[in-house]
Amino acid sequence: MITDAIIAPIELRALKITDVHFKLFEKPLENTKLDLGIEYKTSGPEDDGSGGAYALRAFLKLSASLASSEDKTDVRLESGVDVFAEVAIDSSYFETADAARDYLAKNALSMSYAHSRSVLTTIAGMTPAGDFILPPIIPDAIKLQE
Questions:
Q1: CA–CA separation, 116 vs 8, rounded Å?
Q2: Interacting residues of 32 by C-beta distance below 8 A, sequence separation 6+
């Protein structure tokens, strides 16, 4: 049984794919190298107007490509996903909206990236590319941008 002790007190108000692309060039190679690009921006957090929660909007732009290990100009797969997320947390958890920012931003990034991974894995599975699973990321390592 799942208890409240392991469920994050965050509310996911929106998680939307706003753009996706996937292009496969020629036949996939055996030895490829992944190039992963992440742009992540947030706005807020701010009082959501109800006076009881802080809300943050996040925008993730993810790009991933596979190229030959020997020749990085020999790109065999290009893909990308843009995600919009809005998350909120009850204001009783943090004294100010600024104090809630890091927590909300990292949770929104984690959820957005996981959603993007799932989308690309599903699309790739329907192509000759087959298994295309992006690596996990460390949300703390991503520089947050306003």
A1: 20
A2: 66, 67, 68, 69, 76, 77
Q: List the pLDDT tens digit at each of the 146 positions of the chain.
A: 566 678 888 999 999 999 999 999 877 777 889 999 999 999 888 776 666 899 999 999 999 999 988 888 889 899 999 999 999 999 999 988 888 999 999 999 999 999 999 999 999 888 888 888 899 888 888 766 55
- Neighbouring residues of 60: CB distance < 8 A, sequence distance ≥ 6: 38, 39, 40, 81, 82, 83, 85, 109, 112, 113, 116
- Entry pTM: 0.87
Three-point CA angle 137, 143, 146, nearest 5°: 125
